[in-house]
Amino acid sequence: MQMATISRWTLAYFSGALVALVSALALMALGLGYPSEGLMEPRTLVVVHLITIGWLSLLMLGALMQFLPVLVGRELVWPKLPPVILALILSGLALLLCGFLALDGWHNAPVEFLTLGGLLLLAGFCVAAVMLFATLLSARSLPLPAGFVALGLLSLLVAATLGETLASVLAGLVGGNFSVALVMHGVGLHAAFGLGGWLTLAAMGVSYRLVSMFLVAPERKGVLTRMAFWSATIALGGLAGVLMILIATNASWSLGLALTGLAAALAIGAYLADIAGLYRTRRRARLELHMAGAVAGMAMLGLGAGLLAWALWTGSQPVLAAAIHVLALGWLGGLGLVMLYKIVAFLTWLECFAPHMGRMITPRVQDLVCERRAAPFFILYFAAELAGATAIVFGSDVVFRIATALQLLGVMMLIHQYVRARRLADLPEAWMDHPKPRLILPATRQRSVA
pTM above the 0.90 mark? Predict the structure, then answer.
């Protein structure tokens, strides 16, 4: 298998992401944000950006810094940039959230925090995109899953630029007819490029590699893979066309949106069918917990896409909110949590035991975790996600808050499992005396099998 280095900052990205997820779920459980408040209320925007930037984007960037080199067979270009990117994103997110609270009259904070925070975020995402694109371009040839990542990175740049423009509009720095049109039609495009383009396409690319690796299944290179990729490319091109029309005319383009939706639906259908093919052709007979949990995450993608189509057809705001909730916390968040369960153990094994292979008996990656203990918390998380989405559709704020509190409990217990893996707490007795790694940052950059 491809030799690769452990990305020193990947676990720091994951740690920041989990803190943002816990914060967002806690706020929702306390009744802050939607559905207790409107979709465009400042505190709803705080929760939304904690999830999309703090949780999902940091999670995805951390994963890409570790696994993109494995995907393309090259080491990460400019490996000293990850801490700079992390600092830019965290400081930008903090200022952005303060700016949203300033719109709500919080301690007379200046609304200009919105623009400054957006600029720092844009800078951080641009540096990340340049580093990851350079890694892609350094490869002799690119497998098709890397194409999904490239499309996702392009979407990230557009989403970040749109976000900074919207922040300037909310701060009152941009006015006129364009600002009105941008608020009316640009928010949806911002969400589509971010949630649908950047996060979903990157998740597709990474999951192709990880699912194949963890299932010990042949990589998919057939018609369905190409259909998923080219349909996603057409959908992204359609979104870009809609954005260009908005900039040129201050109006939306209904036909372009409809074509984009059809192409996106085809891409999702082909991707899910392709992933099902990976499960059917796997060489590992027994599904480990994280791969069984990934099935639930994939099911959430199908459910969220169906709810989104229904919402757009009927114009129902509660169904639209439920669809976004399922896609963000069920599909992307759920898949992220189940993959973290394996990735944290995998990186810990690479750091602690891979250097000793061939010189001593070493434990398996699976020996670093206890599936029996963790399984109920994944069940709790996904069950609470379904309950929360149902509560949004039927307008039950109390049920939603209870479901979110249960979801938060599930996440906290899963974080405890990640920490146990990192502290080697579940290792068999024969290895209990092995030196424990640092919780977040590896001590050194070691070359290991990845």
Answer: yes
